[in-house]
Amino acid sequence: MKKDWKTKLIHTEAQVPEGFRSLSTPVFRGSTVLFPNAAAVNDEWNQHEVGYTYGLYGTPTALELAGRICELEKGAYTLLAPGGQAALSLINLSFLKTGDHVLVPESVYSPHRKLASQVLRRFGVEVSYYPPTTGAEIVTRMRGNTRLVWCESPGSITMEVQDVPAIAAAAHRAGAKIALDNTWAAGIYFDALAHGVDITMQALTKYVGGHSDLLLGSVTVRDRDAYDRLGETHQVLGCAVSPDDCSLALRGMKTMAVRLKAMESAALELARWLTRRPEISLVLHPALASCPGHEFWLRDFTGSSGVFSIVFQRQFTKEQVFAFVDGLELFKIGYSWGGVTSLAVAYDFQGNPGRPDYGHRIVRFNIGLEEVEDLKTDLERALGLMK
Ligand SMILES: Cc1ncc(COP(=O)(O)O)c(C=O)c1O
Q1: Which atom number of ligand 1 is nearest to the Cα of residue 336?
Q2: Which residue, of 10, 160, 163, 303, has the fewest CB within 10 Å?
Q3: What's CA 322's distance to the chain center, in Å?
Q4: What is the rounded distance in angstroms from the CA atom of residue 282 to the CA atom of residue 288?
Q5: Mind giving me the DSSP string for 325-379?
Q6: Number of Cα atoms under 13 Å in the Cβ half of residue 345
Q7: Do 179 and 214 form a contact (C-beta atoms < 8 A)?
Q8: How many CB atoms within 10 Å of residue 93?
Q9: What is 272-314 written as a DSSP string?
Q10: Alpha-carbon dihedral of residues 5, 11, 16, 22, nearest 10 degrees?
Q11: pLDDT at 353
Q12: Which atom of ligand 1 is nearest to the CA of 206?
């Protein structure tokens, strides 16, 4: 057919040679997926089985990232979500319905708590919170309608390491599923599925992305029924991910081992150094005996990452804690973590009955890739400003 130049803008006859091979996964963008004929058109989400149908369910870039996360977490199926919080929502909305009960640790990431308290309750789900130091005794909190038990280990900010296998066993005896936010361990340092977890998720935003420039989440399972529920819910919620972000995450993955190793060693060195500072009453690093649940870290984890918290002595005012954080030069102030830049954020748990009595005296660090001696000098100087 003879084509006008305007038609050729859309339907080109230009050719490029085939056979290009490189070390990077191409960024496949696309909403529309082409079908070979009218009868082949379908809108099924499970593209691994039915072939590509729609960009919403992932282009090859997203499916490669999902496959690689699945391999690392030793799962059978992985779905991606547009952020860690979206992955948490996907799990809750897949496994809960009106009249069900969900158990959530008090140490949970605070937007996850909001999702449970504000959204799930609005839809008639019973939500209760349990102390993260609870192990097998969680059985006393189970109800006839408990369908999902959440763990986050270590917990956000207060860093309690949980007895996940004991909680998993109790949940399974009660016929409930157990889901874990495994972000701190990067899906690597805690083998969630081998410790009884049914559904493991991580914010790929943190260590997989690794450079503070993307938002993605993953959900990994072994069970086919769980995968179907997640996939069907993922489809109707429209949990599309950006192929560009997936490409960045694939690139981040290649250097994750060396980044994690460097961050682990720097964080441990700084955490140990901080235990010797008179201003500090407690260092909450899972690999240190001072961290609640340290024994479970020793038993179940194969390493530690770069996020930990400190609690100042009682005499320090909120203004002094702020002066410390503001006095840091290399540590920047900001949410999220897992990137190459060290960060510090002060939290205030005053009037929060679910959290330990740390009040306004807790600061969480993300340790990045700066020279550790420079970070120490920075901390030392800022501690000096608290006098
Ligand atoms: C433990 C934990 N889970 C989930 C999330 C949410 O991830 P995202 O920021 O990708 O939504 C965060 C973010 O800080 C987090 O710290």
Answers
A1: 14
A2: 10
A3: 27
A4: 10
A5: HHH-SSSB--S---SSS-EEEEE--TT-TTS-S-TT-EEEEE--SS-HHHHHHHH
A6: 13
A7: no
A8: 20
A9: HHHHT-TTEEEEE-TTSTTSTTHHHHHHHBS---SEEEEEE-T
A10: 130
A11: 81
A12: 10
CA 109–ligand 1 middle distance (angstroms)? 7
CA–CA separation, 239 and 256 (whole Å): 25
Which regions of the chain are under pLDDT 70?
A: none
Task: Determine the pLDDT at residue 352.
Answer: 84
**pLDDT score recorded for residue 387:** 73
Sheet-wide strand order for 146-152: 77-81, 217-221, 199-203, 177-181, 146-152, 101-105, 126-130
Closest ligand 1 atom to residue 335 Cα is 14
Distance 385 CA to ligand 1 centre (A): 31
Residue tagged 């901080």 (tokens): 274
Residues lining ligand 1, CB < 6 A? 83-85, 109, 152, 156, 181, 183, 203, 205, 215, 217, 336
